[in-house]
Design a protein that fits this description.
The structure is a homodimer of 246-residue chains. Chain A is α+β, with helices and mostly antiparallel strands. Chain A contains 8 helices and 13 strands. Chain A has helices at 4-10, 39-48, 126-135, 137-162, 166-182, 196-203, 207-219, 236-243, and strands at residues 21-22, 34-35, 50-54, 59-61, 69-75, 78-81, 91-95, 100-101, 112-115, 119-125, 189-191, 223-227, 230-233. In chain A, the strands form 4 sheets. Chain A has a 4-stranded antiparallel beta sheet with strand order 3-10-5-8. The first copy, chain A, has a 4-stranded antiparallel beta sheet with strand order 4-9-6-7, covered by helices on one side. Chain A is globular, with a radius of gyration of 19 Å. At the A-B interface, helix 3 and helix 4 of A face helix 3 and helix 4 of B. Chain A binds a DNA duplex (30 and 30 nucleotides) through helix 7.
DNA sequence: CGTAGTATTGAAACGGATCAATATCTGTGG
DNA sequence: CCACAGATATTGATCCGTTTCAATACTACG
């Protein structure tokens, strides 16, 4: 389109250039994720990153395939999962805009990445990225913060998995989605773009258990499901309580 | 002791200087962790790291305390855990020599770190480390590799947690301990310095379940417990099979 | 050598997994 | 635009293994 370049110039915070969100190494106060990259760094990254629009349900890379690229999510949601011999498909993470993925492997990818929704991703060839990071210490530090942040996330996730009660897990998940999407303020409707199966894989439950948990959340008047992908929060306090009961 | 300094000079690979082990970003072949730091880098780190001997069961930092230092394990084993309102105490990770910890938080620590055995740790003030990394891109890259590696570990752990069968979990854990300790070759005896409670916290099981799992492993002739902290492997194949059955 | 924390063992109950049958949705082609 | 097929989700009944509670044994440390 003829306006593309202008738009890109006009809005440096657009999703046209890669960005990272995370918690700085030394930020003393807030635990709120902030923009990690300077405008300059974002443009440097843009120089080595290829922007790709990807339809939903697209596999970006497969477990065991030789690792060639690292990705940053621009828009949409990506899931990372593994295929286990027993047929289970644990979801290791859902990735949201400004998250990195593919970095977490070496030589070969150790998991499969697939878009959950239509998405925009930035693809950075591993070799180029390595050279860039070996040269730009500031940038490397930001990547370190980001991966560190994602390690924290992974550990929080691990704790959620350990819970035995399905409703509690579900409540936690809904809350996290809410936070992630609205970046702060609530509008009472939580978007859940992934399938029940995906959620089950993420929470370490069976599909049926997820279904029942949703049902029970409805029956107890905590939320209503507008459709399978949107929940309206009726009793925020109850939701919070369920989520942190553990 | 009067020979201390000489010893340090004589053996650059001793545990007197910090080291990191992990999988390089670009190493194509082996998935075996290798030494990440050059001798020069190890000495640079030594300049900013304080070496501390720590008796077993010592708390290194507490959840919610202001974060001041990042640590590298020199010798021994450290565990990182959280205290949950319901009284549970999930163990997020056991850390072995050349692992980093404390890096995974910002502003305040989000978990508690405690030595499992007598240990040697290298303490690096966060501010100093930040400045060093902002300046030395190569070193920063190694840290990135290491944290990335630990993220992989965390995700592998998450998958282990999801398993429902206690014996399988226990088998996985024993194998991992074996690999971690012997760095390759087996001598048939697995050291398990941590308590049953620690193991339970790590595997997301009750103490009783761990106890029973060990019992069943014995009864089925897979291992024998010499004492509570040492297991002799009787049937390696069976152990492997149990571990990867999932 | 005793005491407190740690571990084993048993019995009962809870909760999710699994199997099975049905319902709903999505996207495709007529 | 509708109908159909395959995937996705709901709901019910049963089973199984872990949790929990409780009582006892062990072990490490002062």
């Amino acid at each position: 389109m003829r306006h593309d370049v202008d738009i890109r110039r006009a809005d440096p915070h657009s999703h046209e250039i890669p960005a990272l969100r995370g918690i700085p190494l030394l930020d003393t106060d807030s635990n709120q994720p902030v923009r990690l990259l300077s405008t300059r760094q974002r443009h440097d990254l843009a120089a080595i990153a290829v922007r790709e629009r990807v339809p939903r349900r697209t596999i970006l890379y497969r477990e065991h395939a030789p690792a060639t690229s690292v990705f940053i999510v621009g828009q949409g949601i990506v899931k990372v999962f593994r295929d286990l011999p027993n047929g289970k498909r644990p979801v290791l993470a859902f990735l949201f805009p400004e998250d990195i993925f593919g970095l977490i492997e070496a030589g070969h990818y150790v998991s499969t990445a697939q878009t959950v929704t239509d998405a925009v991703v930035f693809r950075m060839p591993l070799v180029v990225l390595r050279d860039t990071l070996a040269f730009d210490a500031e940038l490397g530090l930001q990547f370190l913060c980001k991966v560190t942040h994602q390690l924290r996330e992974s550990q929080r996730h691990r704790i959620a998995i350990e819970r035995r009660d399905a409703v509690g897990k579900m409540a936690t998940f809904l809350r996290r989605l809410d936070q992630r999407h609205t970046h702060g303020e609530r509008h009472g409707v939580i978007h859940m773009p992934m399938t029940r199966s995906d959620v089950a894989g993420y929470l370490g439950l069976s599909l049926e258990a997820v279904s029942r948990a949703c049902r029970r959340l409805e029956r107890s008047g905590v939320v209503t499901f507008i459709d399978r992908h949107r929940a309206r929060v009726l009793d925020q306090r109850a939701l919070d309580k369920l989520a942190s009961a553990y």
